[in-house]
Amino acid sequence: MLSLRPDSSGNVTPDFSVAVIHPSAKCLIKRSIDILGALVGLVILSLIVIPVALAIKLDSPGPIFYAQKRYGLQGRPFTIWKFRSMVQNADLLKQTVLNQAQGLIFKNEHDPRITRVGRLLRKTSLDEFPQFWNVLKGDMSLVGTRPPTEDEVSRYSPHHWRRLEVKPGITGQWQISGRSAIKDFEEIVHLDLHYQDIWSPLYDLQVIVKTITVLFDRRGAY
Question: How many domains are there within the chain?
Answer without folding.
Answer: 1
